[in-house]
Structures are given as structure tokens and as C-alpha cells.
């Protein structure tokens, strides 16, 4: 997919931030007590708080999983990291090879961690959310040393009617910057379109079928769904088959996406 994305190399569209924007961000971060020598993210939710945070933002996270999984094959190296955040910069999900995820977790990058200026200093996510445009930051432009090995491209996720929904970041220590920026913009646009879709069509889905679909969208197995709802695995399968038929889809991915697009989930 990399070769199908059209990129531009003009200064206006390159995503590089101005010195003034960086200076203002540095000032806000320092005023919040963040220093250049900070080696770990400051604001990290506890386990219970993180679980509540993820549940409250289940729609964006579920779509993020569905869409980003499709794009993972387009990442060129083993050290690239995709980060999905809420509108306040708090992380909802991370996608990368296991070694990269482990390295990121060592300095606090995990679901529930905040990439706001007050927590992580100047970074691509905080600048993209503040300016509400796609940006690129090289390593030295980050305020904190913990990000100095990363080149980051981030794009705000915006609905068709202009509502800010979240942010997507692609970080790596090498690779063509314009392709990374184009990819992150492409994913962010798709998420904005899907999450921002406010159509509500019942399609005859029953409350129980909606419950099963909701758990299925969160990644629960047939056995886990049956245990939570006190029904058999066969009944779970029947509800899912009925939902797929009513929505005219054949695959799990298509069924969940259709359910969210129509407001069922």
C-alpha cells in the first residue's frame, strides 16, 4: 500500500512544525514541570483506571484495531510503532512487533499513559492535537531525551463534520518521512470517517444479538461470551450468524464494522 499513497514534498504540506510552534510547546511543557532529562512518561493510569478508560472509548479502540491491523503489513521495518490516542493524548492502543512494544513499555508507553505536554513534553501527538494538523517531529525536536531516537509522524483523527476524535502516531528510528506521514494521514482519515459516522439503522438486531456483537468486537472468544452471558457456545454462534445475515456480511471483521457504522454498537 505504500506505493499507492500519493505524497507531496512541498513545505506547506510536509508536516514539519515551525520554530514558533515548538517554542510555545516547550514553554508549556516546562511550565508543567517536564524536563529534558525526563526518561519516563509521568502520567500513567492504574490498572482499574485504564480498564475504565478503554471501555469508555471502546468505539474508537475497536475501529482502531480493525483498521490498523489491515495496515500493519505495510510497515517496512521491525521497529515501527503505531499509537492510537484519545483527544487528550492518552494512549488507547499500541501496535508493533513484540520487541518494540517491550522497549516502549520500559519508558511508560502503554495503554493508559498520557502523551500530553504535561506528561511527556513536546511530542508529535501533543503538537498534532494542539494544531489539529498532521505533523512530523525528528528526534531532536522532542523536548524529552526519551524520544530523541524516534522520528514521529502524527495526524489528528477528525470526523466528517469536523469533530476531533483522537490522534494517530507512527514512530520509528529510520525510514522515509513522507511515506510515514502519508500512511498515518491515510489511517487517520479512515478512522475519522468510520468513527464519525452517526447513522443509526436498527436492521432488526435484537438486544441479545447486540450484546454478543459488542463482546465479539472487544475480542472475546465464543467461550468467553457464553460464560459472561450464561448461554451456550452454540447459541453464541447462532446470534452471530443471525447478525451477519441481517447485516448482509460474511466475515467477522465486516460484521463488526457494519454494526458500528450503523450505530448498532
Do you know the CATH architecture of the largest domain? 2-Layer Sandwich
Element order: H for helix, E for strand: HHHEEHHHEEEHHHHH
Tell me the number of helical segments per DSSP (H or I, 4 or more residues long).
Answer: 11
Largest sheet: 5 strands, antiparallel
- Unreliable sequence segments: 1-13
The CATH class label of the largest domain is Alpha Beta
Biggest sheet: strands side by side, in what order?
Answer: 2-1-5-4-3
Gap between N and C termini: 29 Å
Record field, number of beta strands:
5
The secondary-structure class comes to alpha+beta
Beta-strand proportion: 5-15%
Number of domains: 2
How would you explain this protein's 3D organization?
Strands 2-1-5-4-3 form a 5-stranded antiparallel β-sheet, sandwiched between helices. The protein has 11 helices and 5 strands, in the order αααββαααβββααααα. Helix content is 45%, strand content 11%. It has helices at residues 19-31, 47-56, 58-71, 98-105, 117-120, 124-131, 177-195, 207-217, 222-229, 233-247, 252-261; strands spanning 81-85, 91-95, 135-137, 151-158, 164-172. By secondary structure, the chain is an alpha+beta fold.
Describe the structure in brief.
This protein is α+β, with helices and mostly antiparallel strands.
Amino acid at each position: 500500500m505504500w506505493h499507492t499513497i500519493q505524497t507531496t514534498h512541498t513545505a506547506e504540506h510536509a508536516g514539519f512544525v515551525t520554530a514558533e510552534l515548538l517554542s510555545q510547546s516547550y514553554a508549556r511543557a516546562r511550565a508543567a514541570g517536564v524536563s529534558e532529562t525526563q526518561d519516563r512518561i509521568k502520567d500513567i493510569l492504574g490498572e482499574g483506571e485504564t480498564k475504565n478508560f478503554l471501555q469508555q472509548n471502546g468505539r474508537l479502540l475497536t475501529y482502531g484495531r480493525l483498521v490498523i491491523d489491515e495496515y500493519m503489513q505495510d510497515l517496512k521495518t521491525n521497529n515501527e510503532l503505531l499509537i492510537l490516542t484519545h483527544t487528550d493524548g492518552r494512549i488507547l492502543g499500541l501496535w508493533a512487533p513484540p520487541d518494540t512494544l517491550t522497549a516502549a513499555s520500559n519508558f511508560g508507553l502503554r495503554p493508559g499513559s498520557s502523551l500530553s505536554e504535561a506528561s511527556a513534553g513536546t511530542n508529535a501527538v501533543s503538537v498534532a492535537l494542539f494544531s489539529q494538523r498532521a505533523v512530523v517531529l525528528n528526534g531532536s525536536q522532542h523536548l524529552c531525551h526519551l524520544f530523541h531516537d524516534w522520528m514521529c509522524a502524527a495526524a489528528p483523527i477528525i470526523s466528517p463534520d469536523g469533530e476531533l476524535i483522537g490522534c494517530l502516531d507512527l514512530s520509528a528510528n529510520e525510514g522515509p518521512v513522507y511515506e510515514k506521514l502519508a500512511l498515518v494521514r491515510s489511517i487517520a482519515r479512515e478512522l475519522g470517517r468510520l468513527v464519525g459516522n452517526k447513522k443509526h439503522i436498527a436492521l432488526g438486531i435484537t438486544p441479545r444479538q447486540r450484546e454478543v456483537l459488542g463482546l465479539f468486537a472487544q475480542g472475546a472468544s465464543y467461550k468467553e461470551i457464553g460464560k459472561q452471558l450464561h448461554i451456550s457456545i452454540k447459541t453464541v454462534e447462532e446470534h452471530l450468524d443471525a447478525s451477519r445475515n441481517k447485516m448482509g456480511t460474511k466475515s467477522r471483521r465486516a460484521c463488526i464494522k457494519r454494526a458500528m457504522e450503523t450505530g448498532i454498537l
